[in-house]
Amino acid sequence: GVEPGTKLRFAGLGGAALGNAPPGDAYVEIQLAPSSEFKRVGRDIEVELAVSFADAILGGTARAPTLDGQVELKIPAGVTTGSRLRIRGKGWPDRSAGGARGDEIVVVKIATPPAEQIDAELREAVRRWREGHASSETAA
User: Fold this and answer.
1) Over the chain, what is the mean pLDDT?
2) I want to staple 77 with a disulfide (CB 3.0 to 4.6 A). Which of 59, 71, 96, 123 is the partner?
3) Residue 139 predicted with pLDDT over 60
């Protein structure tokens, strides 16, 4: 991986010189366009991932985007919005560390089902759960 701000020199590939002098050198400075999906934090990469309401409660798996494509990610039961799950070795490569890569940090966002998918059975189950846990929620 090339770091932003790296300057590359291409000897003899610059503009034509005056007279019979050889062409000059061309210099290129590397700039990275911001990604709408990934955020770089040092050697690590952060990405947000929507996790279904059911998988957040029960656990499951989800497809997470990485710089190398999609990978299967285990979602632990009871995960909450803002939880950070680590995928080792899927971050930014570090030339100064022999190409070792940082990690990808997946920031969980719980996706609540749309109203039309919440049937009477689910509504009643959540209502019963809320009644049994009301005191612990208000204490937080």
Assistant:
1) 89
2) 59
3) no
